[in-house]
Amino acid sequence: MILDFLTDILDYLAGGGVVMIPLGIVSLWMWVLIVERLIYFRSLKYASVSFHEILSVWRGEAAPSRNGLRAGVLRSFSQLRTGNSTEDKCNLRFLILRNRPALQRNIAVIGVLAGIAPLLGLLGTVTGMMTTFDVLGGYGASSARAMAGGLSEALLTTQTGLIVAIPGMFMAEFLNRRAAQYDHLLDTLATSLQDYIGKNNNRGV
Asked: 60: phi > 0 → left, psi -120 to 50 → alpha, else beta; which?
């Protein structure tokens, strides 16, 4: 049964012609990046940081030990904190800016790969139709099998390009929204800490 399934897949790929090779590479590359992003966002655990934990960091007590984007920023800030308002605000901006690029990493590439897939499918359509017209020019309409091969190549590559592109575009948008959520978490944490820096540094809290 598995052997029959693999044979069907190979026949499908062979029917699409040489364009199926770059389509397969694009699909594999895209899904490797998607899985990497899903694992990365899962590792952040979308953990919230409480008001009490912000105060604990400010007072020099233990920083949050659990995983999470904001918890990690708090741990780093607790190590860099100097008690000087200007330096602490600079350190905080540095930590926020350092974490932002990691949120968007590879998402643009996923979108580009999803956009390339239907173009490769269109290229396969063109090559398949060219094969069909070559057959018509050489043998007329008498060689139905050869004509069917060209039409099959044209349709299979178009279909495969769309199969690769549609979920890829959906996942790119999903990952963009997830990155925006984490970016908002960084903004709210930065606002909270900057308020405490401005109000409490000079008081020695």
From this structure: left
Does the residue 205 lie in any domain? no
Ordered DSSP codes for 104-138: HTTHHHHHHHHHHHHHHHHHHHHHHHHHHHHHHHH
Q: What is the pLDDT of residue 199?
A: 65
The reported pLDDT for the residue numbered 205 is 46
Q: What's the whole-model pTM score?
A: 0.76
Domain count, the chain: 1
Q: What is the 3-class SS of 54-75, one letter each residue?
A: HHHHHCCCCCCCCCCHHHHHHH
d(CA 161, CA 141): 29
User: pLDDT per residue over 10-47, tens digit each?
Assistant: 666 666 678 888 999 999 999 999 999 999 888 876 55
Distance CA 190, CA 88 (A): 11
> What is the crossing angle of helices 69-80 and 144-200, to 10°?
40
Q: Which residue range is the domain that position 145 belongs to?
A: 2-200
Residue type, 192: S
